[in-house]
Amino acid sequence: MKKAPYFSATRTSEPVELCRLALVALPYGEGPQKVMPLGLQNISAYVKKNAKHATCKIFDYSDLYTSDINELSDLINWAPHLVGISIYSSHVQAAITWGSTIKNALPGTFIFCGGPHISLAAEDFLRAAKGTFELALRGEGEHSTARLIVLFNKVNTQTSLKTKSKKQRKKYIYKNHFNKVPNAVWLTASGKLKESYIEKIQLPTADWENPLLEYSSERLQNLYFTDRNDAKKRKAIALTSSRGCPLACSFCAIVAADKEGPKWRAIDATTLVNWIAEAYTQYSFEHIYMMDANFFVRKDRVLEFSEKLYNLFEGRVTWSSSSTVGYLLKLQSELPKLVRQGLRLVEMGVESGSQSQLDYMNKKVTVQNNIDAVRALQNNRIDVGLDFIMFYHDQQKREIIENLVFLVKSGLTEHDSLDHYFNIMMLYPETPVRKNLERKIGTKLDLLQLPNSRAFIENHEVYKIYTAYIDNFAKPILNQLEQAIASNIEKVGTSTSLTEVAYLSLLNIHLKHMPFQVLWWLCHNPDKTTEINRKNFFINYVTKINKAIANDNAINAPKLKIIETPTTGSGGRKGELIGKSL
Fold first, then answer.
1. What is the dihedral of CA 385, 391, 397, 402, to 10 degrees?
2. pLDDT at residue 471, rounded to an integer
3. Alpha helices in 79-115 (DSSP H)
4. How confident is the model at residue 158 (pLDDT cuts 50, 70, 90)?
5. What's the rounded Cα separation, in Å, for the pair 560 and 571?
6. More confident residue, 61 or 157
7. Residues 214 and 41: beta-carbon distance below 8 Å
8. Which domains, from first to last, does the chain contain?
9. How far apart are CA 18 and CA 371, in angstroms?
10. 82 φ/ψ angles, rounded to the nearest 5 degrees
11. CA pair distance 274, 280, nearest whole angstrom
12. What local confidence, expressed as pLDDT, does residue 53 receive?
């Protein structure tokens, strides 16, 4: 495509009104999660460096439910000139609703969108939004957003437009200048799709700005990390230092979103530590969440980062990261040193304990590799953030059993979080598993909401097992089970009786086994799935749960209670158990 000429704000001796840009992170559609809007932090840092006469605020609503639309008042009261909303495939309908609410409250505000879903399905989203969003930006949003700000300032400084209303100026931009914004997509008044030109759809690493300087937002989420090695709760910050992933897992949306360029790229270790040092002059923190999709890709980079971070803070600041199994095993011999230098948790994409399921996911590892990787972390007292997919639509019953056997062999039956027992593979747009399914059923799946994977389970036994597990156990009991475990933990922390502490600790081990026991029974009794809640072991579990929470007021809470875990990564419930409002 032909590149548009560069433009800049018109020089004038008159004071230029600062363009107010609001960057909005919506509820993820997967329940409240303590995940900072990392992409928006990157955009904010870049805009402040590369677009003059602009002020930017991040409005982070990601820790809310999609029904909490009344919380938009702080954004509306700020009355921004432009609002950019990051769109994920899990909350498309919510984005349209929230965007429409903003548009109705601020009719003169220019609303645009970007994010992973837009890179995959911009046209469908714009048509579904019916004019709520004037513009969609594909790819990584820093460069395009900065150019949009420059365009906005240029229009606002033109004498001929100063007397026009916000609506008139917005219409002028729509008619004359969208083609000057790189990687932009929009619909004309007649409904025709228009595209601009491609430029820096993947921003070069040399152009990345320090996102930690944008850590504050209008709705700051305070992150903490519970350090078990030091028995200390640490105030934390989070950032990404790389983008993409060199692997090609068949279910992963990152693969589809990064099809325009290199699969993985990262800043060097020295720059990363310099970013952290710069942030330390502004914020107080003792732990760093490295939120990269796959931080352990380059062994030399990880080792250099860890050593430089340790030397900089003399061990006062710890860190956690993410990895896939193969890259973790390449660093296995270095784990003791990394722990001494501050590594405390690795969120690991194990995904399955069944070899056929791993092959289906294109994971390129063996079940034994997965066991070895988990054990390597456990042996070095590194917490495991477990990414695991218990169910998927093409599954056989034996694969569920193999997953359960793996949890036993790898020592994960007493893992802090229970989420991995309920995760079902999500069918993200443009992923190989979704494309294969679409070919099989002969139709394209709806792009406006993620399909319910349960509806596509082919094996009759698997369908019955999954349905009973979710409907007869998880939905009615899981909230109370997690509440009972949390209540016991609190009692252990305050009790002065060694006998009580021992009893409650053992009781929690027993309670944590309930999801395993129920699923194991269902797998071996697929013709009796409707009888599960009448079995003695099930009734005994429920009795102990009810006794543990008898004095807890939260039992009748209207929303699923999400137990805080040591990780803020991509793990968590996927599928039908996502903490929706009841």
1. -10
2. 96
3. 92-105
4. low
5. 17
6. 61
7. yes
8. 19-207 (3.40.50.2300), 222-388 (3.20.20.70), 418-582 (no CATH)
9. 55
10. -130, 145
11. 10
12. 86
Per-residue model confidence (pLDDT) at position 29:
65
**Residue 291: enclosing H or E segment and its boundaries?**
none
Distance CA 207, CA 65 (A): 34
Helices (H), 314-366: 325-330, 335-340, 355-360
Give the closest residue to 115 by CA, choosing from 107, 105, 125.
125
Contact 378, 417 (CB under 8 A): no
| Beta strand pairing call for 318-324 and 383-388 | unpaired
Terminal-residue alpha carbon distance, the chain: 49
Reading the block at residue 461, the tokens are: 């036994």
The residue-averaged pLDDT of 432-450 equals 94
DSSP 287: E
C-alpha to C-alpha distance for 526 and 517, rounded to whole angstroms: 14
For residue 535, give Cα distances in angstroms to 172, 311, 540, 542: 69, 57, 9, 11
* DSSP three-state, residue 489: helix
- In degrees rounded to 5, what are phi and psi of residue 218? -70, -20
Q: C-alpha distances in angstroms, 390 versus 8, 395, 418, 463? A: 52, 10, 11, 13
pLDDT for residue 269:
98
**Encoding tokens for residue 542?**
């429920």
In the structure encoding, which two tokens stand for residue 50, read together? 């590369």
Q: Is 191 left (phi over 0), alpha (psi -120 to 50) or beta?
A: left
**CA 4, 123, 66: angle at the middle one, nearest 5?**
120
533/530 Cα distance (integer angstroms): 8
Within a 10 A sphere around the Cβ of 163, how many other Cβ atoms?
A: 7
Kindly state the tokens that stand for 575: 């599928």
Per-residue tokens: 259:
């099809």
Q: Which of 368, 332, 338 is nearest to 353 (CA)?
A: 368
DSSP3 helix / strand / coil % (the chain, rounded to 5) = 45, 15, 40
Ramachandran assignment for 391, one of left (phi > 0), alpha (psi -120 to 50 degrees), beta (any other): beta
3-state secondary structure 350-373: EECCCHHHHHHCCCCCCHHHHHHH
Closest listed residue to residue 470, CA positions, set 486, 456, 454:
454
Give the pLDDT confidence of 381-407 residue by residue, as tens digits: 999 999 999 999 999 999 999 999 999
Q: How far is CA 44 from the centre of its chain?
A: 19
69 residue type, one letter: I
